[in-house]
């Protein structure tokens, strides 16, 4: 009885955060969006309407072109925006490519999608030279990829500037697949996000892959036992042991519906089929477990709706704007205009 009450309470928490459309491009009335989305830091929903009206169309078309050739680049773009916003804010610092930058940190070596951003930037420099930041491109591209993967649409506000600096040491701030829930919550709270955002954004693992190197510790000689993590479903563990002999191999994060943007991820967690340690810990922790249960038992649309809300919050973290003199609009996304490396 107590478990049922907790689940209902969790469900009510989710419903409170629901007032966002997950519709297609063209969206809802901006006034409705402003009622729940904090447009701080001078970001504007119509920022490019006059100065670069084809901005989002160019981004959408380029993302579609690239993902048509390689579907795995869609989840890669979503991961790329997490790694950008989760370090020093959504400032495109992850795109800078020089010795000692975030991009060259060991934890960033499996990041992909940089070539898509470069291609989009090149097209926009021809259409609207010097007007569109790489930070805005990355935010827009991640949404385009999400929608094209079958995920929800959310309205982006624009006007970000690009950072001029990037440091590999800062990558330690990005949540890893081996951190405990308390550490994850503390990280998310430092971003201004909450426990619901943590559970929902973790649901991005409904699509995409993990490098075997990140999970081998769960599969071979777990805690010096010479066996696998006993919390993994035995059949899944057997499959992963055979698949992950080499650290460079990859496995789907959702072993059941790997290319569908649905709530199967949460159902998997309830069956001990979480690929990453932090994923599986979500269902065990009393603070996050009821939310996992609620998303697993409710229609997929609930997850999709809340994912749109949480993403709209994430992409507004720590942005630089026109009033920030430390920011710029890069000519090339991998290089700062003002520094030579």
From TrEMBL:
<keyword id="KW-0560">Oxidoreductase</keyword>
<dbReference type="InterPro" id="IPR010255">
    <property type="entry name" value="Haem_peroxidase_sf"/>
</dbReference>
<feature type="disulfide bond">
    <location>
        <begin position="52"/>
        <end position="128"/>
    </location>
</feature>
<dbReference type="GO" id="GO:0020037">
    <property type="term" value="F:heme binding"/>
</dbReference>
<dbReference type="GO" id="GO:0005576">
    <property type="term" value="C:extracellular region"/>
</dbReference>
<feature type="disulfide bond">
    <location>
        <begin position="85"/>
        <end position="90"/>
    </location>
</feature>
<feature type="binding site">
    <location>
        <position position="89"/>
    </location>
    <ligand>
        <name>Ca(2+) 1</name>
    </ligand>
</feature>
<keyword id="KW-0575">Peroxidase</keyword>
<feature type="disulfide bond">
    <location>
        <begin position="212"/>
        <end position="244"/>
    </location>
</feature>
<feature type="binding site">
    <location>
        <position position="175"/>
    </location>
    <ligand>
        <name>substrate</name>
    </ligand>
</feature>
<dbReference type="InterPro" id="IPR000823">
    <property type="entry name" value="Peroxidase_pln"/>
</dbReference>
<feature type="active site" description="Proton acceptor">
    <location>
        <position position="83"/>
    </location>
</feature>
<feature type="binding site">
    <location>
        <position position="254"/>
    </location>
    <ligand>
        <name>Ca(2+) 2</name>
    </ligand>
</feature>
<keyword id="KW-0408">Iron</keyword>
<feature type="binding site">
    <location>
        <position position="87"/>
    </location>
    <ligand>
        <name>Ca(2+) 1</name>
    </ligand>
</feature>
<keyword id="KW-0106">Calcium</keyword>
<comment type="similarity">
    <text>Belongs to the peroxidase family. Classical plant (class III) peroxidase subfamily.</text>
</comment>
<feature type="binding site">
    <location>
        <position position="91"/>
    </location>
    <ligand>
        <name>Ca(2+) 1</name>
    </ligand>
</feature>
<dbReference type="Pfam" id="PF00141">
    <property type="entry name" value="peroxidase"/>
</dbReference>
<comment type="similarity">
    <text>Belongs to the peroxidase family. Ascorbate peroxidase subfamily.</text>
</comment>
<feature type="binding site" description="axial binding residue">
    <location>
        <position position="205"/>
    </location>
    <ligand>
        <name>heme b</name>
    </ligand>
</feature>
<feature type="disulfide bond">
    <location>
        <begin position="134"/>
        <end position="333"/>
    </location>
</feature>
<dbReference type="InterPro" id="IPR002016">
    <property type="entry name" value="Haem_peroxidase"/>
</dbReference>
<comment type="function">
    <text>Removal of H(2)O(2), oxidation of toxic reductants, biosynthesis and degradation of lignin, suberization, auxin catabolism, response to environmental stresses such as wounding, pathogen attack and oxidative stress. These functions might be dependent on each isozyme/isoform in each plant tissue.</text>
</comment>
<dbReference type="InterPro" id="IPR019793">
    <property type="entry name" value="Peroxidases_heam-ligand_BS"/>
</dbReference>
<feature type="binding site">
    <location>
        <position position="93"/>
    </location>
    <ligand>
        <name>Ca(2+) 1</name>
    </ligand>
</feature>
<feature type="binding site">
    <location>
        <position position="262"/>
    </location>
    <ligand>
        <name>Ca(2+) 2</name>
    </ligand>
</feature>
<feature type="site" description="Transition state stabilizer">
    <location>
        <position position="79"/>
    </location>
</feature>
<keyword id="KW-0479">Metal-binding</keyword>
<feature type="domain" description="Plant heme peroxidase family profile">
    <location>
        <begin position="42"/>
        <end position="337"/>
    </location>
</feature>
<keyword id="KW-1015">Disulfide bond</keyword>
<protein>
    <recommendedName>
        <fullName>Peroxidase</fullName>
        <ecNumber>1.11.1.7</ecNumber>
    </recommendedName>
</protein>
<feature type="binding site">
    <location>
        <position position="84"/>
    </location>
    <ligand>
        <name>Ca(2+) 1</name>
    </ligand>
</feature>
<feature type="binding site">
    <location>
        <position position="206"/>
    </location>
    <ligand>
        <name>Ca(2+) 2</name>
    </ligand>
</feature>
<keyword id="KW-0376">Hydrogen peroxide</keyword>
<feature type="signal peptide">
    <location>
        <begin position="1"/>
        <end position="22"/>
    </location>
</feature>
<dbReference type="GO" id="GO:0042744">
    <property type="term" value="P:hydrogen peroxide catabolic process"/>
</dbReference>
<keyword id="KW-0325">Glycoprotein</keyword>
<dbReference type="InterPro" id="IPR033905">
    <property type="entry name" value="Secretory_peroxidase"/>
</dbReference>
<feature type="binding site">
    <location>
        <position position="257"/>
    </location>
    <ligand>
        <name>Ca(2+) 2</name>
    </ligand>
</feature>
<keyword id="KW-0732">Signal</keyword>
<keyword id="KW-0349">Heme</keyword>
């Amino acid at each position: 009885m107590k478990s049922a009450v907790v689940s209902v309470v969790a469900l009510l928490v989710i419903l409170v955060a629901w007032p966002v459309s997950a519709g297609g491009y063209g969206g809802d009335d901006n006034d409705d969006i402003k009622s729940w989305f904090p447009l701080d830091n001078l970001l504007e929903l119509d920022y490019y309407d006059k100065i670069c009206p084809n901005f989002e169309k160019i981004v959408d078309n380029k993302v579609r072109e690239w993902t048509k050739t390689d579907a795995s680049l869609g989840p890669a773009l979503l991961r790329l925006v997490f790694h950008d916003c989760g370090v020093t804010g959504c400032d495109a610092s992850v795109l800078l490519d020089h010795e000692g930058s975030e991009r060259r940190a060991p934890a960033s070596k499996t990041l992909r999608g940089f070539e898509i951003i470069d291609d989009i930037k090149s097209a926009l420099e021809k259409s609207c030279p010097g007007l569109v930041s790489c930070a805005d491109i990355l935010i827009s591209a991640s949404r385009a990829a999400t929608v094209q993967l079958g995920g929800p649409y959310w309205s982006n506000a624009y006007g970000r500037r690009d950072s001029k600096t990037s440091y590999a040491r800062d990558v330690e701030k990005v949540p890893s697949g081996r951190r405990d829930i308390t550490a994850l919550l503390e990280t998310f709270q430092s971003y201004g996000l909450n426990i619901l955002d943590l559970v929902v954004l973790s649901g991005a693992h409904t699509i995409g892959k993990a490098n075997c190197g990140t999970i081998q510790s769960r599969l071979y000689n777990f805690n010096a036992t010479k066996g696998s993590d006993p919390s993994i479903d035995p059949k899944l563990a057997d499959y992963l042991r055979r698949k992950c002999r080499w650290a460079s191999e990859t496995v789907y994060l959702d072993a059941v519906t790997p290319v569908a943007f649905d709530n199967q991820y949460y159902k998997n967690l309830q069956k001990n089929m979480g690929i990453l340690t932090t994923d599986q810990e979500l269902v065990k922790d009393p603070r996050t477990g009821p939310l996992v249960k609620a998303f697993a038992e409710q229609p997929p649309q609930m997850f999709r709706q809340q994912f749109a809300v949480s993403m709209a919050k994430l992409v507004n973290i720590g942005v630089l704007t026109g009033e920030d003199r430390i920011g710029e609009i890069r000519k090339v996304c991998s290089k700062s205009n003002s520094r030579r490396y």
